[in-house]
Design brief:
By secondary structure, the chain is an all-alpha fold. It has one domain: Mitochondrial carrier fold. It is built from 14 helices and no strands. Helix 12 packs across helix 14. The radius of gyration is 27 Å and the shape is globular. The model is unreliable at 12-17, 26-43, 53-58 and 123-129 (pLDDT under 50). Belongs to the mitochondrial carrier (TC 2.A.29) family.
Length: 396
């Protein structure tokens, strides 16, 4: 075969050689660099393959196959390694598992916070503007359980479960991930115990704000689905959602992207206060209890005690903002998308305090505590177990 023929053959197969070489190089690089930069390299590789596969011969088939297989390989490698490498994704999975067990208390908390909304509790007022414990099917945790079971069955206690788990995963992945990163970098450590506490509060609040920003639509849908009932058991404004996906698409279709973040100031305030109190008090309590022998002998006992104390302080500081967030998200809107009852966080706070008193801002305190404390324990238990499995099987 002549030299010119060899040159022509090499030139004809050059696109195939370049395509295959690029795919192999990209695969190899990502196997050794499973990171965000590797993910961008994956997309760049696919785009290069796409632009160099416009051939009508066998080379186009090879290029197309290389593009498909490299995309699948790279996507699987990057996703799996990121899932295994990043603690905040494990934290999101742990929060999701814990959310399954704490959701019934979340339903009860929502019903209690919305029952008697903007109604006075004094017996001397007209019947249309008052609410009494005798007429309240959610006056206590036990009575709330009975009312929900009687009106909606066992499944009523798990209303809004899909959106609640989606919220837990989205919010806690970001929240715990940022806070864990801050702890790993020792950004939460101060020169004194007071400085450490202040830094923990700051990072806890910041991580909560960012996490709630991402997960805001799921929280709104969760609240609206959990509030839905019938007859005397219905509380607040009744939205007619049939499911999480239907609710998200319906809200987006009617109100656009802004509609999905309606009530956003409420959840940001709630999560910033709650996250600061929870993460700061939990870390402080663990360090404090660690000085005693009974806590040093068992990590589980230490975590349990810290969670119970942390849950109480979290509820004390967060409950008023939790009530406000629930009411802002559940209220109906007019044709212009404005709330029918409240204009802002401050407006909701003043109206609730004026008509219902301090009691109105702490509605649902007991079920909220029994939701937060076990959720914290289960969340940390699942998180530690997931990280242990990751370390055992993948050597991290």
């Amino acid at each position: 075969m002549s030299t010119s023929s060899n040159d022509s053959l090499q030139q004809a197969h050059a696109p195939t050689i370049r395509t295959t070489s690029t795919a192999v190089t990209c695969l190899t690089a990502l196997c050794f660099e499973p990171s965000i930069s590797g993910l961008f390299s994956c997309f760049a590789c696919v785009q290069w393959l796409k632009s160099n596969s416009e051939h009508k011969s066998a080379e186009s088939v090879i290029a197309k196959s290389s593009r498909i297989y490299s995309s699948l390989w790279l996507g699987a490698i990057v996703l799996s390694r990121l899932l295994l490498k990043m603690d905040f994704l494990l934290g999101g999975c742990a929060a999701t598992c814990a959310g399954f067990f704490s959701n019934p208390f979340d339903v009860i908390k929502t019903r209690q916070q919305l029952h008697g909304e903007l109604l006075q509790r004094t017996s001397g007022a007209p019947a249309t503007t008052t609410t009494t414990p005798a007429s309240n099917p959610y006056s206590s945790v036990v009575r709330s359980f009975r009312s929900i079971l009687r009106s909606e069955g066992v499944l009523g206690l798990q209303k809004g479960l899909v959106s609640a788990l989606a919220f837990q995963f989205a919010m806690n992945s970001v929240r715990l991930g940022i806070y864990q990163t801050a702890e790993n970098c020792e950004w939460t450590r101060g020169a004194s115990p007071a400085g450490t506490l202040l830094r923990s509060i700051g990072w806890g609040g910041l991580s909560g704000v960012i996490g709630s920003t991402v997960a805001c639509p799921f929280y709104m849908v969760k609240t609206q689905i959990q509030a839905r009932s019938h007859g005397k058991y219905a509380v607040g404004y009744q939205h007619r959602h049939t499911g999480t996906l239907a609710a998200l698409t319906g809200i987006y279709r009617e109100r656009g992207i802004r509609g999905l973040w309606r009530g956003y100031p409420g959840i940001v305030t709630r999560t910033a206060v709650g996250s600061s109190a929870q993460l700061a008090t939990f870390s402080t309590c663990k360090d404090l209890f660690g000085q005693f022998e009974w806590a040093r002998d068992s990590v589980a006992v230490n975590a349990f005690a810290a969670s119970m104390v942390s849950g109480f302080f979290t509820c004390v500081f967060m409950s008023p903002f939790d009530v406000i967030a629930t009411r802002l998200f559940n209220q109906g809107v007019d044709a212009n998308g404005r709330g029918l009852l409240y204009r802002s966080v401050a407006d909701c706070f003043t109206k609730t305090l004026r008509t219902e008193g301090l009691h109105g801002l702490y509605k649902g305190f007991v079920p909220n505590y029994w939701r937060i404390a076990p959720h914290t324990i289960l969340n940390l238990t699942f998180w530690d177990q997931f990280k242990a499995w990751r370390d055992l099987y993948y050597g991290y």
